[in-house]
Specification:
The structure holds two protein chains of two kinds. Chain A is 72% helix and 3% strand. By secondary structure, chain A is mostly helical. In chain A, strands 1-2 form a two-stranded antiparallel ribbon. In chain A, helix 1 (2-31) crosses helix 9 and helix 2 (39-55) crosses helix 9. Chain A is globular. Chain B is built from 13 helices and 15 strands. Chain B has two domains: 2-156 and 299-368, Response regulator (Rossmann fold); 158-296 and 378-397, Rossmann fold (3-Layer(aba) Sandwich). The radius of gyration of chain B is 24 Å and the shape is elongated. Classes of the chains: A mainly alpha, B alpha/beta. At the A-B interface, helix 1 and helix 10 of A face helix 2, strand 8, helix 8 and helix 9 of B.
C-alpha cells in the first residue's frame, strides 16, 4: 500500500511540471494560433538561466522570478522578430520554430557546454508521512503550479483581457472591428506562455538535471497535455497533465517499465480519437487564411 | 631582359610547386568522425579532444618518421550531428575525397558499423571505442577479405568489462553491508546499447552469485521516481545504475531521496563528477568509469594525461574519460607506420598492429589486439565513503579469463 501511495505522490509532482508547460502551449497554440515547437527550449533556457544564477550565489526563488522574466523577454523577441510574420501561415511558423529550437540548443551549448546541469535541492527536506516519502521541493512545485493555474484560469475566464482574448479567437475580424487590439493580445499571450516556460524550467531544474536537449523531449508531452485537455483550455491542460502524470506513474510502477512513454501516448491517441476536441473542449487551433 | 624576367618567374613558380609537393608529402591525413552536436555530443567531444591532443603531441615531437620521410598528422574532423546518415556522408567524404589513411570514431555502435562498410572496402583503418562491436568482430569478419579487416575495437569486450566491474563492485560493497548482498537490480536505459551491455552485466552478476532483476527505463527519462519506487518494492541489496552516466546522475539523487536500496553502483560516473556535484549518500556507493576515472586514478600517467586533456579546453564531464578509448591508438598507429616504413600499405599496418603491443596511458600493462581486433585491459572501480563527496577507495580489477555461463562472449 505504501508503494502505491508513493506512486500517486510521485505522479502528482511529475504532473505539475507537465501542466505548467502544457498551459503555456495551450495558450500560445490554442489562443494565439502559433505552433511554437521551440517552447520546450524556452523551458530549457529558463532552467539553464536558473542554474547560472543559483551558481552565482542567487537564492533559488529569486532566480526563478528572473528566469521567468528572461524567458518572457525571449518570447517577446521571438514573437516580434519571427512569429508575427507567420500568423497567417501557421505551418511556416511551425517550421520556423523547429529551426529556432535547434538554434537555442546550440546557443546554450556554445555559451555553457553540452553537459547536464543541476542545482542542489533548494529546500533539501524529505518528509516521511505514514511510510511515504514526500520531497519538500516537489510539494512546493505542486503548490506553485496550483497558484499559477488559478491565476491563469481566472485571468482567462473572468478578466476583461481574457474575455477579449477569447473573443479574438472566436471571431478575429469582429473583435478587431470592436476595437480589440488582437495583434497586441497575441504578443501578450506569447509573452505570458513563455514566462510560464521560464518558471517551468526553473522548477524543473530544482527537481531534475537538465541538458540542452531537455526541451525537445518535454515539448511532446506539452503538446499531448494541451491536446488531451482541449486547446486553449487552462482547466483542460490541468486535467491532461494529471492524466499523463497518473498514467506515467502507475504504468512505470505496475506495467512494463520500458514502455512508460508509450502508455501515455496511447492514452493521448485514444482520447483524440474518441474526443477530438479534447476532454474539456477547446479551440480548433491555428487556422490558415 | 623580358626573357630573363620570364625565366625567373618560371623558376620561382617551379620552386613553389616543389615546396608545395614536399609539404603535401609530409602530411598524414587522419579522419575523426564524432558527435559535436546532437544528443551524443558529450561522448563525441571527447574523441575530438583526444585526437587534438594526440596530434599536437605527435607533431610537436617532430612527427612520424616513415621510411625517409617525416609526416605531420593532419586531422580532418567531421561532426556527425548524432545522425547515422551524416556519419555515412562524412565517412564517404573523408575516404573518397580527402583520402584519409585512418578514421577515429564514432561514439555509437550502429554508426561505427555503418562506417566500417565504407572504410573496409577502401582499406582505411578504423578505431572505434564501442565494446558492442564484439557482436560483429568474428573470425570471418576480420579475415583478410572480411568486411571488418581494417576495423579495431579500442575498448575491451563487454563480458570482460562486465566481469571485472561486477567483481570489483561486490568486493568493495560486501564488507560495508550488514550481510553479504544477494539481490541486485540492474537499472538501464532501454536502447540498443543498454540492452547489449546489460545482457552481459546481468550474466556477470549471476556468475558472482547474485539474484538479478533487470528494470529498463525509456531513454531520455528525467523523472525516475515511479521506477525507483517500483525497485524499492523489490527490496534489493544493491541497485546498479548501468550504462548512461548522464541518466545515472539524474536518477541517483532521486533514489537517495526515496531510500531505494542500502547500496548503489553508478556505472560511467567519474569520482571527479561526484565530487564536483557535491553528491553525498549515507549508504556506500561505488562507481566506475569508461575506461579509467579522471577524478581518482591510481596511475600518475592518467593524471598527467587528464591535466593536458583539460588544459586544451575540454570540459569536465561524466564521459570525459571516454577520450582515453581513443588517445593511445594514435601513438600505436604511428608506431606501426614507422615499423612498416610506408603509409600506403594498410594490410601491412594491420598485420603490424596485430603482432605488436603498445604501453599507453589507459593501461599499466601493454595493450595487445587479439585475433578479433579487440584489446583487453582492467577496470577501475571506486567506492566513496558514506556522507562524503571526496573520500574514495579504488581498486583495479582484472577481467575474467572466460565469459560466464550463459554469455556467448560476443
Amino acid at each position: 500500500m505504501d508503494i502505491f501511495v508513493q506512486q500517486l505522490v510521485n505522479s502528482l509532482s511529475v504532473a505539475s511540471v507537465t501542466i505548467l508547460i502544457g498551459i503555456g502551449i495551450t495558450l500560445i497554440f490554442g489562443l494565439a494560433g502559433i505552433v511554437n515547437f521551440a517552447h520546450g527550449e524556452f523551458l530549457m533556457v529558463g532552467g539553464m538561466a536558473t542554474w547560472f544564477m543559483v551558481g552565482a550565489g542567487m537564492n533559488f526563488f529569486v532566480a526563478l522570478v528572473f528566469a521567468g522574466l528572461l524567458v518572457g523577454a525571449l518570447g517577446f523577441a521571438a514573437e516580434r522578430c519571427l512569429f508575427r510574420f507567420t500568423l497567417n501561415r501557421p505551418m511556416n511558423g511551425f517550421i520556423m520554430s523547429i529551426g529556432l529550437s535547434v538554434i537555442l540548443q546550440h546557443a546554450v551549448i556554445r555559451v555553457f557546454n553540452e553537459f547536464q546541469k543541476s542545482i542542489t535541492d533548494p529546500v533539501g527536506l524529505v518528509w516521511t508521512i505514514g511510510g511515504v516519502d514526500v520531497t519538500a521541493m516537489r510539494a512546493i512545485v505542486v503548490a506553485i503550479t496550483a497558484v499559477i493555474v488559478a491565476i491563469t484560469y481566472f485571468g482567462i475566464s473572468r478578466s476583461r483581457y481574457g474575455m477579449a482574448l477569447r473573443a479574438s479567437v472566436s471571431d478575429r475580424d469582429t473583435a478587431e472591428l470592436m476595437g480589440i487590439p488582437v495583434r497586441r493580445y497575441v504578443t501578450g499571450v506569447f509573452i505570458y506562455g513563455s514566462l510560464l516556460a521560464g518558471i517551468g524550467g526553473a522548477l524543473m531544474i530544482s527537481l531534475f538535471p537538465i541538458t540542452p536537449f531537455t526541451g525537445s523531449v518535454i515539448i511532446i508531452r506539452g503538446f499531448a497535455v494541451s491536446l488531451i485537455g482541449g486547446l486553449g483550455n487552462v482547466g483542460g491542460a490541468v486535467v491532461g497533465g494529471l492524466v499523463l502524470g497518473l498514467v506515467d506513474g502507475l504504468s512505470a510502477g505496475y506495467g512494463y517499465p520500458e514502455w512508460t512513454d508509450a502508455y501515455s501516448l496511447v492514452v493521448m491517441i485514444l482520447i483524440l480519437v474518441l474526443r477530438p476536441q479534447g476532454l474539456l473542449g477547446g479551440t480548433l487551433g491555428p487556422k490558415a487564411s | 631582359m623580358r626573357q630573363l624576367g620570364l625565366g625567373l618567374a618560371m623558376a620561382a613558380a617551379g620552386l613553389a610547386m616543389a615546396l608545395q609537393t614536399a609539404n603535401a608529402d609530409e602530411e598524414l591525413p587522419i579522419g575523426v568522425i564524432a558527435a559535436q552536436s546532437g544528443s551524443f555530443v558529450s561522448a563525441g567531444n571527447t574523441i575530438v579532444g583526444a585526437a587534438n591532443l594526440a596530434a599536437q603531441q605527435i607533431n610537436d615531437a617532430g612527427g612520424i618518421k616513415v621510411g625517409d620521410k617525416t609526416y605531420k598528422v593532419k586531422l580532418y574532423i567531421r561532426d556527425n550531428r548524432t545522425d547515422v546518415n551524416v556519419t555515412i556522408a562524412a565517412a564517404r567524404e573523408l575516404v573518397n575525397d580527402i583520402g584519409v589513411k585512418a578514421i577515429w570514431g564514432t561514439e555509437t555502435h550502429d554508426f561505427s558499423v555503418s562506417m566500417a562498410k565504407i572504410t573496409g572496402p577502401a582499406k582505411v583503418l578504423q578505431f572505434s571505442g564501442n565494446s558492442s562491436l564484439g557482436a560483429v568482430l568474428d573470425d570471418k569478419a576480420v579475415a583478410e577479405d572480411g568486411w571488418l579487416h581494417y576495423a579495431f575495437q579500442s575498448e575491451p569486450q563487454e563480458w570482460q568489462r562486465s566481469g571485472s566491474t561486477a567483481k570489483g563492485v561486490l568486493s568493495l560493497l560486501t564488507p560495508q553491508l550488514k550481510s553479504p548482498p544477494r539481490h541486485s537490480v540492474v537499472f538501464v536505459g532501454n536502447d540498443a546499447t543498454g540492452q547489449y551491455l546489460s545482457s552481459h552485466y546481468v550474466k556477470a552478476l549471476e556468475a558472482e552469485g547474485q539474484k538479478v532483476d533487470l528494470v529498463q527505463y525509456p531513454p531520455d527519462t528525467t523523472d525516475f521516481s515511479p521506477l525507483l519506487t517500483r525497485i524499492k518494492g523489490m527490496k534489493p541489496d544493491i541497485v546498479h545504475f548501468w550504462y548512461n552516466g548522464d541518466s545515472t546522475l539524474t536518477a541517483f539523487p532521486q533514489a537517495l531521496k526515496l531510500g531505494v536500496a542500502p547500496s548503489y553502483f553508478l556505472f560511467g560516473v567519474d569520482p571527479g563528477i561526484y565530487q564536483e556535484r557535491s553528491l553525498k549518500a549515507d549508504v556506500p556507493v561505488t562507481m566506475s568509469c569508461v575506461p579509467v576515472c579522471w577524478g581518482s586514478s591510481p596511475y600518475p600517467e592518467v593524471k598527467q594525461y587528464f591535466d593536458k586533456y583539460f588544459g586544451l579546453g575540454a570540459a569536465k564531464g561524466p564521459q570525459s574519460s571516454v577520450s582515453l578509448l581513443y588517445y593511445d591508438y594514435f601513438f600505436w598507429y604511428a608506431k606501426a607506420l614507422e615499423k612498416v616504413g610506408k603509409i600506403d600499405d594498410p594490410d601491412a599496418v594491420v598485420a603490424e598492429l596485430l603482432k605488436s603491443d603498445y604501453k599507453g596511458v589507459v593501461s599499466p600493462v601493454p595493450l595487445v589486439f587479439n585475433k578479433h581486433h579487440q584489446v583487453t585491459f582492467a577496470t577501475e572501480v571506486c567506492m566513496v565513503e558514506p556522507n562524503t563527496s571526496d573520500q574514495f577507495k579504488c581498486a583495479v580489477e582484472q577481467p575474467p579469463a572466460a565469459p560466464p555461463p550463459g554469455d556467448n562472449g560476443g
